[in-house]
Amino acid sequence: MDISGIHHVTAITADAQKNIDFYCGVLGLRLVKLTVNFDDPGSYHLYYGNESGDPGSILTFFAWPEASRGRVGPAQVVAIAFAVPEAAYEFWSDRFRQHHIAAQGVLGAFGEQVISLADPDGIQVQIVAAAKAQDYHPTGGPIDPDVAVSGFHGIAVSEDGYELTARLLTDVMGFRAAASEGNRFRYQASGDRASIIDLLCVPDARHGAMGAGIVHHVAFRVPDDEQQVAWRERLHALGYNVTPVIDRRYFYSIYFREPSGVLFEIATDQPGFAMDEAPGQLGTALCLPPWLEPNRRAIEDSLPQLRLPQWSS
Asked: Which residues contact 171 (CB under 8 A, 6 or more apart)?
């Protein structure tokens, strides 16, 4: 019943094309799925990940054109860290310079080599040189697999106070307290990838506000429907307001808010992104769920045209 790690992270962008150009063209992620927000089918929902769209590599965006800029602060996910092989650090420093992207190389928390930068909407993105990253790097695409992003390293969550959230992570979700440094407290899930959450205790910080450039929620992974139902029952018994199971087409989801208010999701690994596209064709056309398919023409007419990236396996 332990959570093995992060399934996906979902954020908000005000410009779908700039978002694609950055995450595919610069970071070399694959556009795994081009679809719409099922609750707002007049807007895109973009999914990025590794070649096969494995859980732990998936970053998604609600594309809300001309959305006002959000405000960063508690309680929010305030940084998204990607893992790359340790030998790739100089490659990424050079790549960001070549693309004229302001990026700062720092010795990060707990002695990690980190390159920190902002995406086009201002989300803090970190590239972390990780010892095990080469064990599960993606193949294909524009970046040599020896240096490519391999998925998430982890996330940082800003909180007024961290103790209640830490108790949820350790006593309920199966994370372990791994380290602490100043006001940063690290917790690690049982899996071998996408498993780190850093809680940042910032009691005097101004509260954040939702908008472009803000992470909407983080999802944690479970292998199947049976475990998800068991998690729902467990969280409900502990007094959390948990949604019913919701069909997200490529996974099933339940949602609840952790004690400080960050929206948490528990998502299943299955059925995955190849259920409506061949693996080699992921992200090459607009995919709609069956209940929206009758409205395809109207939906396509309402969406802006996009230049989609090419992906080679």
From this structure: none
pLDDT bin (cut points 50, 70, 90) of residue 1 is: confident
Q: Which amino acid is at 136?
A: Y
Question: pLDDT, tens digit, for every residue of 52-78?
Answer: 899 999 999 999 998 999 999 999 999
Q: Which residue in this structure is represented by tokens 């061949």?
A: 278
In the numeric block, which tokens belong to residue 36? 């719409």
* Encoded tokens for 11: 């954020």
Max distance between CA atoms of the chain, in angstroms, equals: 54
Give, in order, the Cα–Cα distances in Å from 46 to each of 34, 77, 248.
Answer: 5, 19, 13
What is the radius of gyration, based on Cα positions, of the chain? 19
Q: What is the DSSP letter of 28?
A: -
Report the side by side order of strands in the sheet with 251-257. Answer: 30-37, 40-49, 58-63, 6-13, 215-222, 263-271, 251-257, 246-247
Residue in the block written with tokens 């970190």: 126
d(CA 47, CA 219): 13
Helix (H), strand (E) at residue 11: strand 6-13
Separation CA 277–CA 284 (nearest Å)? 9
Q: Which residue has 């305030």 as its token pair?
A: 78
Task: Give the pLDDT confidence of 243-279 residue by residue, as tens digits.
Answer: 999 999 999 999 999 999 999 999 999 999 999 999 9
Burial of 285 (0-12, 13-18, 19+ CB in 10 A): exposed
C-alpha to C-alpha distance for 73 and 159, rounded to whole angstroms = 8
Sign for the CA dihedral angle at 86, 91, 96, 102 comes to positive
What residues does 247 pair with on adjacent strands?
252
54 burial via Cβ count (<10 Å: 0-12, 13-18, 19+):
buried
For the chain, domains (ranges, CATH) are 6-302 (3.10.180.10)
